[in-house]
Amino acid sequence: MIRFLFTSLILFSVFSCTDKSTKILKNGTWRATLEVMDSEILAFNFEVENKTYLNLYNGNEVIKIEEISYKGDSVFIKMPVFKNYIAAKFVDENTLSGNYFDPDRGRIILFEAKYDSNTRYKTSNQATINM
Description:
The protein is mainly beta. It contains 1 helix and 9 strands; from the N terminus they run αβββββββββ.
């Protein structure tokens, strides 16, 4: 019984401490990019609903992500189903920079994200055809 109480006290102490310097994702829309090859950019958006839940948008596809963790100035976003994940640091409160890891394929892809942006691709010309 004493061992149980002692272990409980230690666990309570460890988990009740919060690191005041830990940064978290701001709620709202972010624009993310992956540099997939030779400076080719794959852009997507995600919307943070709270510090541990976000929706990732790729066109009409919506992927719910519920595995987000933080450590200091870093965020770790685990993709559902696969072993893939994003590990990024906060450059500032509105910018993330890091990597997308795909362990099954042995790939590491540059990742960046900017807060308060919902445009996937920026265009310089007006559309000439309205469909």
